[in-house]
Amino acid sequence: MLKIENLHAAIDGKEILKGLNLEVAAGQVHAIMGPNGAGKSTLGYVLGGRPEYEVTDGSVTFAGEALLDMEAHERAAAGLFLGFQYPVEIPGISNVQFLREALNAQRASRGEGPLSGAEFLKLARAQADALGMDQEMLKRPVNVGFSGGEKKRNEMVQMGILDPKFAILDETDSGLDIDALKAVGEGINRIMRKPDKGVLLITHYQRLLDYVEPDVVHVLVDGRIVRSGGPELAVELEREGYAEVTA
Amino acid sequence: MTGTLDLPTKRQEAWKWSDMAALEAAARSDHTAPDVVPSALFLDIEGPRLAFIDGVFDPTHSRPGPVQVTAIGEASEHPLGRLAAGEGWRLSLDKGAATETIQIVHIGTGADNHVPARIELGEDATASVVESYAGTGWANRLTQISLARGARLMRSVRLMQSAGFVSIRDEANVAEAASLVSVFLGAGGMGSRIDGAIRASGTGAYAEMGGALLTRGEQRQEAAVVVDHAEPEGSSRQIWRAVAADTSVASLAARVEVKRHAQKTDGEQSLRGLLLDRTAQVNLKPELEIFADDVKCAHGATVGELDKRALFYLESRGLSKGRARALLTRAFVGDAMDRIGEEAVREAFAEDAGRWLEAAL
């Protein structure tokens, strides 16, 4: 479903990803773990299409298409979702306004008609309820004044509304208390654990993996995958530390 | 326009950002067929309507209600405002009176036109006036406003001329516990000068003048406002947003004056500029002149570009770059437009701003 080959990427002339290879099949959840500065977030941004990151070599194929040739919004329309480590606050634009416009833009590029305000609101409320987010927060400006946990729940509500084929979730577990962690984990399973979908979980810690069990765990160090294994690798990393496991 | 105009020059501090050349060119422009009809500019809300075509009252498109079309005698010392003399309109409301929203449409077809206006609200009277400017040429207006104790006026003005120049001079006196809220939107293709002198002359007076200027191409728009607090416990807000694209220039000068006697004044001044292109220019001049010692005056002035992180966030959810920029820019001017009390008017202004952004981005 997602195939990354020999990916090299740089920001401000500094190479961060140095020949990364990874393949996620449909129906699978892969976790990418690694120490700070390994290039985890860079991988998420490069796959999402953030313009400041320069791909210097390699290729990424998503659902049979050359992902790197697409603009960020085209990737979204193709079914890619990037969950942000630090969701951005956008004063003056309400969640519903933003998400309805985003969803309808995606639908339009797929040749589908727009959802009406009422249809959209029904969908948004159902997703907010499922994630334990107060419906009033749908009307508030995007992420403004939200706590860390609320922002992450909001990311999951967005994912539920947009219903992507593939989600790259960057440190979605950071800043979450245990209830929020559980809600977010359940959200990922409910929305994305399907035979025709895939997930790349980028995380520093093992705790989210207690709720979302990965099929494959990769260890990213200095811009490359240095080890891959089953879910037990995450437990080993947590116990032994990155230095030990990658030595 | 015949003869010479005695206009301010850039050497005068208060006019250093002004585009008097564009004003003169508009004044000397030939009349052309109108590019808009009054019915296209009236919002679908109840209430009196007045149309002025090239500064002349057009009764066929008007139902003036309580508004009188008459000669206005008051004079102004303002260099542009003093040119607006002769026949204009007057709204006088008695104590406690209220009207439906009054809409006034001004359409120019070339050359210059000048219209004076008076708004006089008696004690506790309330009114809302919406003005729209369209067409071309130079539209010059002087509006003198007098609010008696407890009176309330909401004034919403949109500058939508496709070309030419609009100059507005407001002179207002706000008495004890009275409230004046004026919101301006410059979203056309013309040059502009919005000029205000508001005197909060009674205890607890509330005065607000703000808005959004959107400029593109080689357009220049500016606002220059002075709020003078003469008595204690008054409050004022000046919330202005400037958005400039291409090589255009948007300028905002706002001053708050607090007299020695005007203790407990609460003034807020927020001037923010957004550059859509690095070749564009936003000038901000915030000024506070405070002689009282127990005063709260919050002020801020910033110029920046759209936040790249926010742009990417919106794009990553499926919005095109253009839509993401338009949405963020609309949010940027939203603060200023939100001050319009009536929903139908606020939404119409927001749509005008949205249309401008669709075209500019």
UniProtKB/TrEMBL annotation, chain A:
Residues 2-247 form the ABC transporter domain. Keywords: ATP-binding, Nucleotide-binding. Gene3D superfamilies: P-loop containing nucleotide triphosphate hydrolases. Pfam families: ABC_tran (PF00005). The keyword Iron-sulfur does not apply. InterPro entries: ABC_transporter-like_ATP-bd (IPR003439), FeS-cluster_ATPase_SufC (IPR010230), P-loop_NTPase (IPR027417). GO terms for molecular function: ATP binding; ATP hydrolysis activity. The keyword Nucleotide-binding applies. Belongs to the ABC transporter superfamily. Ycf16 family. NCBIfam families: sufC (TIGR01978). This is Fe-S cluster assembly ATP-binding protein. It comes from Stakelama pacifica.
From TrEMBL, chain B:
It holds the Pfam family SUFBD_core. InterPro entries: Fe-S_cluster_assembly_SufBD, SUF_FeS_clus_asmbl_SufBD_core, SUF_FeS_clus_asmbl_SufBD_sf. Residues 119-332 form the SUF system FeS cluster assembly SufBD core domain. It comes from the Bacteria. GO terms for biological process: iron-sulfur cluster assembly. PANTHER family: PROTEIN ABCI7, CHLOROPLASTIC. This is Fe-S cluster assembly protein SufD. The lineage of its organism: Bacteria, Pseudomonadati, Pseudomonadota, Alphaproteobacteria, Sphingomonadales.
